[in-house]
Amino acid sequence: MITQTTARPAHVDCDAQAAGLPGVVTEAQLGNMLKKTERTLWTWRQTRTGPPFIKVGRSVMYRLAAVYAWLEKLEKRERK
């Protein structure tokens, strides 16, 4: 099970957080976190298979809580 911590992960040095949006990461930052390209994230948005996103103008951002929830839905359970 994936748990969300209250502390910001060290690899998330977020411009959005600096702008007063804690818990929000940019498309590039999420790509780095998931080891996926921005093109893959774009494809996921177009096919509605990726995590929920926020669009402000041309900027795409992701709430970390929504990303963690999406990852939990993808988590496979071991069959007994």
Short description:
The protein is 41% helix and 14% strand. The chain is α+β, with helices and mostly antiparallel strands. A hairpin with a 2-residue loop joins β2 (54-56) and β3 (59-63).
Overview of the structural elements:
With 80 residues, the chain is of the alpha+beta class. The chain is 41% helix and 14% strand. It is built from 4 helices and 3 strands; from the N terminus they run αβααββα. It has helices at 15-18, 27-34, 38-47, 64-74, and strands spanning 24-26, 54-56, 59-63. Strands 1-3-2 form a 3-stranded antiparallel beta sheet. Strand 2 (54-56) and strand 3 (59-63) form a beta hairpin. The longest helix has 11 residues, at 64-74. The chain is globular. It starts with 14 loop residues before the first helix and ends in a 6-residue tail after the last helix. 12% of the residues are buried. The model has no long low-confidence stretch (mean pLDDT 83).
- The helix count comes to 4
**Rg result:** 13 Å
Number of strands: 3
Strand order of the largest sheet: 1-3-2
* Helical percentage: 40-55%
Overall pLDDT: 83
How much strand content do the residues show? 5-15%
The SS-based structural class is alpha+beta
Low-confidence stretches: none
Overall, the morphology is: globular
- What is the string of SSEs from the N terminus onward? HEHHEEH
Main beta sheet: 3 strands, antiparallel
Distance between the termini: 17 Å
